[in-house]
Specification:
about 65% helix, globular, two-stranded antiparallel sheet, mainly alpha, about 290 residues, 12 helices
Length: about 290
Amino acid sequence: MSTTTLPTPSDLTITPRDRKFERGELNPRLWHGGNVEATAIYNALSTTFPTGEAFFVESVRAFREGTPPKLAAEIKSFTTQEAIHSREHAAFNRRAADSGYDLTKLEQQIDYRLAITKTKPPIVSLAATMALEHFTAILAHELLADPRHLADADKDAADLWKWHACEEIEHKGVAYDTWLHATREWPRKMRWKVKAKVMLFVTRNFVVDRTAGALELMRQDGVKGLRAWSRLLWYLWIRPGMFRKIGVAWFKFFLPNFHPWNEDDRHLLRAYEASASAKAGPATAKKVRSAA
């Protein structure tokens, strides 16, 4: 697929929404409806974002030179959005730490994974970013599509996650389009083989590390062993079953002619923008057109 026939919508607007959320200690500590496993998995996910999204920006910007003007503008907007996400999740993670959680083990595991990736050629970092951006986009879709995921959460924390989900959907094609441009001279078979291997590797690490991170945080709340495993696995895979529900969208990554925008889910963005969550609290939004 050439970069002249990308299915990213031509009228897409990538909008960095420079919002600032609560900075005080999480109160209650189990902010997700008093549910230890729900609080743990969202805290574990949040721990990945400050370092992880800085890595995404670095990986995509390494291939910005020579991109078409439209994609170059989208990369700029993507970079701005991700920088703001890193800032707000760093603040959220400090709130979790102030509430008594020790995030050290989780942060060390993230650093370990990224250190290995950075020993590889830059194209590997871009491929990993493309795969992880697909993960964040399909998780974001599910989060916004089903209000039950955050129904019992603290309002400000829920607003943070909805805001982040909106922007992850909005820029979901940027890393993939950058990958297509960077590998434009590759044979299709080679391109597919590399991206499939990277996605399988990323999937294993994502599921294993986020599960381990959530179990560690549950341990800090006194929930251990079989009880912790059963509660967390039920929450992730059965009810509400976030990981199970993204399965089909995850699989589509491996299909011929896959692109994140094969599913145009901008209706979720419009619904978010019209919601009270989008208007709550102090926020500013600078419109950035993702066009040439």
